[in-house]
Specification:
The chain is of the alpha+beta class. The protein has helices spanning 18-23, 28-31, 42-52, 102-123, 144-150, 166-179, 223-237, 247-261, 278-285, 287-304, 329-343, 372-388, and strands at 4-8, 13-16, 61-70, 73-85, 91-100, 128-133, 139-142, 182-189, 198-209, 212-221, 267-276, 310-315, 318-324, 348-349, 352-353, 357-366, 394-396. Helices cover 37% and strands 30% of the residues.
Length: 409
């Protein structure tokens, strides 16, 4: 199928195949015995003659891409020729080929133009856009928003491995093929030059780009939304003043633990702590002093009860702690002693002792009797007994505190 011809040293065609003659709308017999200038465009014949001239003097070959006008159209061809020797060994002429690649060049130009139009549109897109090779993941294009988002300014041949590990990339491409596209994948990105991690929402879809199978990435930065959602979650679950868990979160924790502990022999304990002298502090030194004492109490509880599963502020000046699998009565009373000792250290606000101490009630139990609401009530009952006994101390709940509720059969 390749257009081939043979010429003697005078430039006359001695043979050619049908594919060569067809380039010029001829049959082979119409071309043989003629010079190329007799039937081909003059510019083409001149160029071919100049390229073949050295081959008449010594062995060699030549290859080039040439352009010429044919029937009013601009054409492009791949030209190749070699020296041809006769039976005596003397140079007899040349053998050459002329492959019309006009359509291919036009297609390449159209692809390049389409790619240029596409990249022009994508550059102005309001979100990050990248195009990576499906085969090796190297980005063939990305707009400035995408580069800034991923920190690609100084990267040489960045690839989509920045976003996805090899295993996850393979699975993502399979999912993309199955669904036609893969939408709203959330990716946490932390690169060495980034001061903090970023959250990106990414969608991918298959794309043919510059004649290659590629992947189109649509990416937006959702870091602010993530932080806002986290802040809302913290406000919903944490006490705004102390940063401890709030009542809602603590009660949710109790429900979860009750489901896990029920029927087991895992030891657990609930502490309730109430500040002594807090109302008087607020009345005499104001709410600023009161708020400071509440914040300081939260810090002290975290220090003294590092092994606690949860430390929470139930409201006002009342705090609670939950211990799971940290020991029985002996270990829990030791923990209570440590908290009382921490809370007995002076609370000094503007060089004045606030006169604050704490009373603690604790209920120690195991999973076999883990009605958390009842255990919370018992800890509260023990806390009031501690206050009634003189404050600044703890009281362990025992059945003797409520003899009417605990009678022998």
């Amino acid at each position: 199928p390749t257009p081939v011809y043979l010429k003697n040293r005078e430039g006359v065609l001695t043979r050619c195949n049908g594919a060569f003659a067809e380039l010029f709308g001829l049959d082979p017999e119409d071309a043989i015995g003629k010079r190329m200038a007799d039937f081909a465009p003059k510019s083409l014949a001149k160029t071919v003659g100049e390229l073949e001239a050295p081959l008449h003097e010594s062995d060699g070959q030549v290859r080039d891409e040439i352009t010429f006008a044919l029937n009013g159209n601009e054409c492009t061809a791949l030209f190749a020729a070699s020296t041809l020797r006769g039976p005596s060994g003397a140079i007899a002429g040349t053998i050459g080929s002329l492959i019309d690649v006009t359509s291919l060049k036009q297609a390449q130009a159209e692809v390049a133009e389409a790619s240029e139009r596409l990249t022009g549109l994508l550059e102005s897109a309001p979100i990050g856009v990248g195009i990576s090779s499906r085969e090796n993941g190297v980005f063939q294009f990305f707009n400035s928003t995408f580069a800034k988002m991923l920190g690609l300014a100084d990267e040489k041949e960045p690839s989509d491995s920045i976003l996805l590990s090899e295993r996850y990339r393979e699975q993502s491409l399979k999912d993309m093929d199955a669904l036609g596209e893969l939408q709203d994948v959330e990716i946490r990105l932390r690169r060495p030059e980034m001061s903090e991690a970023r959250w990106l929402k990414t969608s991918i879809e298959p794309l043919s780009f510059q004649g290659e199978e590629s992947v189109l990435w649509w990416t937006s930065d959702i870091t602010k939304q993530k932080h806002a959602a986290r802040e809302l979650q913290n406000k919903a679950n944490n006490d705004e003043l102390t940063g401890l868990a709030n009542r809602a979160r603590f009660m949710q924790k109790l429900d979860q633990c009750e489901n896990v502990l029920r029927g087991t022999d895992t030891p657990a304990a609930i502490f309730i702590l109430d500040l002594d002298g807090f109302k008087q502090l607020n009345d005499t030194q104001g709410h600023a002093a009161g708020d400071w004492v509440l914040i300081e109490t939260g810090k002290r509880l975290k220090r003294a009860a590092r092994r606690a599963e949860e430390v929470a502020r139930l409201g006002g000046d009342e705090f609670t702690l939950l211990f799971l699998n940290k020991g029985g009565e002996k270990e829990m009373t030791e923990a209570a002693d440590a908290i009382i000792a921490e809370m007995s250290q002076p609370f000094v606000w503007e060089r004045q002792d606030c006169g604050i101490s704490a009373s603690i009630g604790l209920a120690v139990f195991d999973g076999g009797s883990c009605d958390m609401s009842e255990q919370l009530r018992r800890a509260d009952k023990a806390m009031y007994e501690a206050k009634a006994a003189g404050k600044a101390q703890y009281c362990l709940y025992t059945p003797e505190l409520e003899p009417d509720l605990h009678t022998d059969d």
